Every structure is written in structure tokens, then in C-alpha cells.
Amino acid sequence: MLIGIDFDNTIVCYDGVFHRVAVAEGLIPPVVGQGKNDVRDYLRSVGREEDWTRLQGLVYGRRILEARPYEGVLEFFRKAKREGLVVKIISHKTRQPYLGELYDLHEAALGWLRHYGFFDLGGKVETPSACGGLYKENSRGEGDVYLELTKEAKLRRIAEAGCTHFVDDLPEFLAESGFPGDVQKILWNPAGGQVAGPWMAIRAWKDLWPILHTVGV
What we know:
By secondary structure, this protein is an alpha/beta fold. The chain is about 35% helix and about 15% strand. The protein has helices at about 15-25, 35-45, 50-60, 75-80, 105-115, 150-160, 170-175, 210-215; strands at about 1-5, 10-15, 70, 85-90, 145-150, 165-170, 185-190, 200. The strands form 2 sheets. The protein has a 6-stranded parallel beta sheet with strand order 5-4-1-6-7-8, with helices on both faces. Strands 2-3 form a two-stranded antiparallel sheet. The longest helix is centred in the N-terminal third of the chain and has 12 residues, at about 50-60.
């Protein structure tokens, strides 16, 4: 069994971060809603799409450490390692923002994983450990973290890695025609609400275990 997991908005929780940074940068009034989509929708409604693009680069780059892991996700990684499951982070993002400050977004993501304890403190290890770290810290096609440059490359990586399950927050990604047909799709949907599609949905990381145990973990 091999569980693939998306990164942004699946492992990383940006609740409040986009709002806080946008207010600090003078992009939105404080009365705009706290959610990422609230900030996006406001900027688009006033014709400031480029400001939204710059804001994403800022949050995903220099300000990423202000975002926290979703509740329960580190515990999921720890338990998965104890039970001998292989977990890989597979995401896609450009190397640098399209607009604004030049920043290595892949290194920022790896730095976030280090900061919040997803890698073993002692460095690379060769066998699973109970302390919750990934085996290797590598965004270049080896190890347990794959930061691809395009959505198509992400889809290929899910297949090539041999994922049996994949967790993502975007229904449209799970519905892609190129999504591997033999992979169990799991929608990360912490807000709840019905999102119809050919997947199972979870609102909390502990909810993933019953799905995995149904196939004999």
C-alpha cells in the first residue's frame, strides 16, 4: 500500500494566512473574509488578478512558515510509519512565482516540511521510524517528496510511484481524465458539504484510517 498526498491546502493549512498577508500588503480591507478563496474572490472582483498572483507567490514563498499543518496530519504520518505504510508527498508548483518577488517555491516547501518536523531530525534513514519523518528530502525525482512542475507531471508521478490511494483537496484534479484508474481517490474536504464525484471524502485526517483498513491494513 502506498499513499500519495498533495501538499498545498491538503497538508498545509493556509487558513488566515492569505488574509493576514493581504491586509499587511494593503491589498484588501480587513473586512474581507478570512479564507483564501475570500481573498482571491475579492481581488478578482475588483480587477486585481495580478495582485492575487503576486500574493500567492509571497505566501507560498517567503511567508510560508506562517501556515500550519492541518490538525492531525503529523499524527497520520507517525502512525503510517509505525504500521509500515509508505507515504509520499506528490504535488505540483512552479519553481518560481509568475509575478512578484523571485523565490524558490520548491525550496520553500521543503523548508516548511523541515520546520514542522516531517523529516527525521537525524537526516536520512533507511528504515521506517516511529518519529514521523519522511525517508528522504528530495524534490528532484527521488525519495518521498515530489514537487513536479506541471499537473500532467504530477499525474504521471502518481502512477509511476505506484500509489494505491491519493489524497487531494481539488475535486477537479481528482476528476482529471489522466488520473490513474487503479488509484483510490480521496478528497480532503475539511469544510464539509457534499462534493459529488468518484471519490471518498474525509474531513479530518483520522477519517482516512477506516478507508485504509477496509483493504486490510
